[in-house]
Specification:
- The complex is a heterodimer of chains A (about 675) and B (about 100).
- Chain A contains 28 helices and four strands.
- Chain A has a two-stranded antiparallel ribbon. A two-stranded antiparallel sheet of chain A has the order 3-4.
- Chain A is globular, with a radius of gyration of 30 Å.
- The N and C termini of chain A lie far apart (about 85 Å).
- In chain B, α1 runs antiparallel to α2 and α2 packs antiparallel against α3.
- The mean pLDDT of chain B is about 90.
- Classes of the chains: A mainly alpha (about 675), B mainly alpha (about 100).
Chain lengths: ~675, ~100
């Protein structure tokens, strides 16, 4: 019987076909291959909706489709490609394919209508990216996830460097590739470690009982030791290795530096890759193997702390930026910090909820920014904008919806998800984890900054008087820009209603639909199971008597305070830069805490030093051995060739002498003369 | 038959002597034509062996084989004389110790 799940691989293959089509025949197609991409992602979207509906009916699916290295016995491992559809991946499929579809439509307005060249290359990149991201989401084992993770990184490189003839994008693409690759090395080592430890890297095989998180759980109970470490320490090490890839891809401190530079790419690419999907890959990976991380309180604490710290640091940097996309870039880093905080604090549902709402509102904000950039003839400086509210009402109101969601103002989507993240951090912190409380405090302070920079951006862009000629007479945008904005604007306003925990608590209604959504699926991959493991193994206990609406009110007040300050400072007809008042901090913020500088310094001194020593070793020792061997052969050859005199009589003599010696030796050994 | 009364050892000694004369010629002479002749001697030493053992065992295969060897020797001489002609054309001599231009 052909059920919905038999079509799951088609979700990956459709965008891949559009990639091949755009690559081979893009030049001969109308709109540079755009329609192929739109059709393919629309197909993926429809299939994803079908998946979600099927999963909502209680079904799940885990199937190995192709074994590319077959294990030859008990002790060997098999490397496979497979598909895993459960509530988490179904939700993510829906997000990725929806946003990929809308971004393809938006690209018609941003790329085609603006007369860009090289469009087949652009649409090929988008298609390959959609395919690899969907493949990553559907991956049923860690190695397959890693392969698609790398493909996603490659597409990011290709698309950031789309305008590769200019120095900025080319260098940003290289930076993004290298920085994320740095994290991926740790991930690769982690994948190998998982294989070496468990012999499998399946997320959910055997109905969730033969997956590697389940094996880890059993090993922990049995008190096994690995490579001289006790099980818990070893799992922490493995978890942190995999986390290296997560930190790189999800732009967490200290590997966040690539993301702001990645804004050099086309804006739809920023929306698709650097806000809604690729950056989400890291967080999704942690959620995917959450059963494994839940076994290690140390890894969880590090995730939470890094997340909280990143949320705060990135939010403060967003406060002083001049370019609209830079503000959004830092807000992206900050929001992913919240997701990591949620995961580390034991709020699995909260983090995935924030992942979903953030994907909607951040894609919306980037596409809105793209619309503004079209209107401003590709000038991104907010100080040249102003007064765009009357000129482009659709963009304004949708952008406002996204901004309210980003700032976390009730009742927009970001409020519900961000507050659940903070609430989880608070209750688990009060339950006996001071580190989580510190992370919570940083997240809470970041709420204020988020409210401030969000509304600074809104007021500078849309309010006040126009500050340049282009802002007085902006370029119009067409339906293909407005339609995606409207869809996402509605979602950013309403997506939060699926999981209103504070309202559920106040009214007693059971309307936390996302919690229920994650309650079924494979044994060992459900939210109840994670809760049990977190409580029993990681020792997470939730403090009693902290009402979620109280925590919500606190962060709402902070967000409103930030927005109010922005209103005071920037919602005036002729706003001025107030950054002078920051004094010395201003330079630090403008220079992004000198993160780039110290990383370049590290590369220049430490890495170059190590490379020089390795080079010396290679040049002298390794090459010395090789050269020595060949020198010995050469010298020997030079001497031995002297017997080759060219006189045929000598050869005959050598032949007969050799034969004689051979016969004599054989005779002595064979006992002829005995 | 009188031949059958000669023991095979005699033939072997004869063959060894002919072979050694041929080898001696190759090792001491410098004239390429003398080389060819010496090689002929060595081939015929082998032929003597073949025929002698063939007679001893009463099996004609060895004698047939020696006919082949003779044909081979004729072919070899044809090739060898060709080589010697070219040698002479290039070096104005048939002295094998002078043709040493293909060494290192």
């Amino acid at each position: 019987m052909a059920g919905a799940f038999d079509f799951a691989p088609a979700i990956i293959l459709l965008p891949f076909l559009s990639f091949l089509l755009a690559l081979t025949a893009g030049n001969r197609m109308p709109k540079g291959g755009a329609f192929g991409g739109i059709a393919a992602t629309a197909g993926s979207l429809l299939l994803s909706i079908w998946m979600v509906l099927t999963v909502a009916g209680g079904a799940t699916y885990d199937e190995t489709l192709y074994t590319w290295v077959a294990g030859a016995g008990e002790e060997t491992v098999s490397l496979t490609l497979g598909v895993l559809v459960d509530p988490l991946s179904a939700m993510m499929l829906l997000i990725v394919s929806l946003i990929a579809f809308l971004v393809h439509v938006f690209s018609l307005g941003y790329m085609n209508d603006e007369g860009e060249v090289g469009l087949p290359r652009y649409y090929a990149g988008l298609g390959l990216f959609s395919a690899s991201m969907l493949g990553f989401v559907l991956a049923d084992n860690l190695l397959m996830a890693f392969m698609f993770f790398e493909l996603v990184g490659l597409c990011s490189y290709l698309l950031i460097g789309f305008w590769f003839r200019e120095p900025g994008p080319a260098s940003a693409a290289k930076k993004a590739f290298l920085v994320t690759r740095f994290g991926d090395y740790f991930f690769l080592v982690g994948v190998v470690a998982v294989f070496a430890t468990f012999g499998t890297a399946q997320f959910a095989s055997g109905g969730g009982t033969e997956s590697f998180p389940a094996l880890a759980e059993q090993a922990l109970e049995a008190g096994e030791t690995y490579f001289g470490f006790d099980a818990q320490t070893w799992f922490t090490i493995v978890g942190l290795l995999v986390l290296g890839g997560v930190v790189g891809k999800s732009a967490q401190f200290p590997l966040h530096t690539w993301l702001p530079d990645a804004m050099e790419g086309p804006t739809p690419v920023s929306a698709l890759i650097h806000a809604a999907t690729m950056v989400a890959a890291g967080v999704y990976l942690v959620a995917r193997m959450y059963g494994f991380y839940a076994l290690s309180p140390t890894a969880l604490a590090i995730i939470a702390f890094v997340g909280g710290f990143t949320a705060l640091v990135a939010a403060t940097m967003g406060v002083v930026k001049k370019e609209i996309k830079q503000v959004l870039a830092y807000s992206t880093i900050s929001q992913y910090g919240y997701m990591m905080l949620g995961l580390g604090a034991g709020g699995y549902v909260a983090a995935t909820f924030h992942l979903m709402t953030h994907a909607f509102f951040k894609a919306l904000l980037f596409l809105g920014a793209g619309s503004v950039i079209i209107a401003m003839h590709h000038n991104e400086n907010m100080w040249d904008m102003g007064g765009l509210r009357e000129k482009m009402p659709v963009t304004y109101y949708t952008f406002l919806s996204g901004s309210l969601a980003l700032a976390g103002i009730v009742p927009f989507a970001g409020f519900w998800s961000k507050d659940e993240v903070l609430y989880e951090a608070l209750v688990h912190g009060l339950g006996g984890s001071p580190l989580l409380l510190a992370a919570y405090a940083m997240g809470l302070v970041a709420v204020f900054f988020t409210g401030f920079y969000t509304f600074r951006m809104v007021f500078l862009t849309f309010h006040g008087e126009a500050r340049s000629d282009t802002a007085r007479d902006p370029h119009g945008v067409r339906w293909n820009v407005k339609a995606p904005l409207v869809v996402l604007g509605v979602l950013a306003a309403t997506a939060g209603f699926i999981n209103m925990v504070p309202v559920a608590e106040l009214t007693g209604l059971h309307i936390e639909f996302l919690h229920k959504w994650f309650e079924h699926g494979f044994a060992g991959l459900t939210v109840e199971h994670y809760g049990t493991v977190l409580h029993d193994v990681a020792g997470y206990t939730a403090a009693e008597g902290v009402p979620s609406y109280a925590a919500g009110v606190v962060s709402l007040v902070l967000a409103l305070a930030g927005a109010g300050l922005a209103h005071q400072l920037y919602n005036v007809p002729e706003p001025v830069e107030h950054t002078q008042r920051l004094g010395g901090i201003r330079d630090v913020l403008f220079n992004n805490y000198y993160q780039d500088e110290y990383q370049v310094w590290l590369a220049d001194t430490v890495t170059m030093g190590v490379a020089r020593v390795s080079d010396l070793f290679d040049q002298n020792v390794v090459d010395g051995v090789v050269d020595g061997v060949s020198a010995v052969s050469l010298a020997t050859g030079r001497r031995v060739r002297r017997i080759q005199r060219g006189v045929v009589t000598d050869y005959a003599l050598l032949l007969s002498l050799g034969l004689t010696v051979l016969v004599v030796v054989l005779g002595i050994l064979g006992g002829w003369f005995a | 038959m009188i031949l059958s009364e000669v023991p095979p050892t005699y033939y072997l000694f004869l063959s060894a002597a002919v072979f050694s004369i041929g080898l001696f010629g190759i090792l001491t002479r410098r004239n390429a034509l003398m080389f060819l002749m010496s090689v002929e001697l060595m081939l015929n030493a082998a032929n003597i062996n073949l025929v002698a053992f063939s007679l001893f065992w009463g099996n004609v295969t060895g004698q047939t084989f020696s006919l082949f060897t003779m044909a081979l020797a004729a072919a070899e001489v044809a090739v060898g004389i060709g080589i010697i002609l070219v040698l002479y054309r290039n070096f104005d001599d048939v002295d094998v110790t002078k043709a040493t231009t293909m060494r290192w």
